[in-house]
Amino acid sequence: MALVEDSYNESRYIYDINAYNFYFRRKVNNLDFEGNGVNVSVDKNTLEISNYNFSWNKEALPDASKAISIEKAKKNFNEKIGIELAYMIKYDQKAKKNNAKLVYTFKNGSRPIDAITGEVINYGYYDPLSDMGASNNEMMAKEAAVLTPEEIKEVENTKKFITKDQALEIAKKYVKVEDKYKLEAASLYTDYNGTNASWSFSWNYNNPEKNEYAYISISIDAVTKEVRSISKYDSTTDNASKDGNPKYSLDKSKEAAEKFISMIAPEKFAQTEYRSDIFRNSNIEKPVSYNFNFI
Asked: What pTM was estimated for this model as a whole?
């Protein structure tokens, strides 16, 4: 994997406003594997890992030596997709207003060219970077199936999946759950074809009187015992950082992200490189978070 450089990190604003986000993209034979990689968010003020997830396909890959030439690919792109002039509206965060832009955009949608056949691949909007984010997680959630208590008991009696207690023991190695948290959910999910499953745990803390809220969630592969995702949020840490500068720099947070991935998924980390993510917002006057991609 390789860390994805992001030239816009100095002015990044995303939902997780108190963290730096790093994305490591998977590399196979020195080629990027779009949509495959590891994403890690690091709290700016504590260096704790606030979010971790990865996408890693196991399908057999085509032989790159059989790819058509780049000249042929460009010709097919111009003939079958092409670009055209269009107007778009871009919001200027500093000026607090919308600006009309004249841009060149895809004439027939953003779709890739099959490097073996030369044909356009038609399967909707194609955005490899978004595959590592919410879109991919939402798709996986829709495809997942929550097992009933009876089904969970049956699964636990098999040798294929680890038990709830085993998964919980693994989870607590990677997330610190303080006494104030309450375990709200512990579920076993199967994937869309029922061949694999993951244990998902979530803890919540809510104190309306102090206006404090926090949560921790983690999912563990029920077969490989790998940590598939981690997500954390604490309003007290969030509120404390809004009025001041982050305690740790971008580079320091990046080091923490690399250290965490190399510890939790060393084989995957070795197949990524750091790349910039140009699709994130870059016009925030006072940024409070940054995004890094390892692909």
From this structure: 0.57
